[in-house]
Amino acid sequence: MEESKNLRLESKKKELEELQKELDLLIDKERRVYDRNEEREISHKINQVFCEIDRVRSEIHLLENNPVASNETIDIYLEEGSIEEESAYFGIYLHGTSTRIGRVSLRSDFYRSLGNIGYGLDEEYRGHRFMLQSLELLKETMIRMKIYKPVITVEPNNEPSIHTIQNFGGVLIQPHDGKKIWYDTYEVDLMADETPKKK
After folding, report:
1. Strand 171-174 vs strand 149-154: parallel, antiparallel, or unpaired?
2. pLDDT tens digits for range 103-154
3. What is the pTM for the complete model shown?
4. Which of 74, 125, 175, 193 is the most exposed place for a label (fewest CB within 10 A)?
């Protein structure tokens, strides 16, 4: 299994090298072209190669790192360049694949043990509880970041997102007023489950 992963990683690194070379040649060619149609065509090819480079870099990142959290349907990876102590960005992937379906961002406020959760899911993957699963899987990470009572803001007409927040334990603490505040604010007490119940 590990050997197969290493072979895939080497293959992806070679693919990235080839794409970088292709990109360099296209950029060099673009500098020497004076025909507008040809310039447009080269520019289009450059954009395509950039997209391919991003895809391969993402696949390399997944092969070089282990998921932060995982279950039978999704894997969650810390994205490149994230600083887990203050803020962190996580990619949500279909389990065992390089198909990225969404993202979660966490920002902490050390002084008040609060923080903020932001998230987004690609439209075609909505309605399958992937976001709720992601938030549940990231609970321990939030607690490690000292985010004990994160807040989540949501537009009042976004019913699916409101259901996700409520199922995650969100309680409305500040409703929109339609004048100055255009969104509802929910708070989640992540330590509520940790409190011993009175007999």
Report:
1. unpaired
2. 999 988 755 557 899 999 999 999 999 999 999 999 999 998 888 999 999 9
3. 0.78
4. 193
Question: Look-up: residue for tokens 């509520």?
Answer: 192
CA pair distance 165, 154, nearest whole angstrom: 9
Residue 43: CB partners within 8 Å, gap ≥ 6?
Answer: 30
Residue bearing tokens 């389990």 = 95
Please give the CATH architecture assigned to the domain spanning 71-194. 3-Layer(aba) Sandwich (3.40)
Are 60 and 77 in contact, with CB atoms under 8 Å apart? no
Question: How many Cβ atoms are within 10 Å of 2's Cβ, its own excluded?
Answer: 6
Whole-number Å distance between alpha carbons of 155 and 176 = 8
**Are the C-beta atoms of residues 30 and 63 closer than 8 Å to each other?**
no
